Amino acid sequence: MILPIVAYGDPVLRKEGEDIEADYPGLQELIDNMYETMYNAHGVGLAAPQIGKSIRLFVVDTSGFVDEGEEDVEGLNNFKKVFINAEIIEEDGDDFVFNEGCLSIPDIRGDVDRPERIVIRYRDREWNEHEETYEGLKARVIQHEYDHIDGILFTDYLSPLRKNMLKKKLNNISKGQIKVGYRMKFPFAK
Question: How far apart are CA 78 and CA 75, in angstroms?
Answer without folding.
Answer: 6
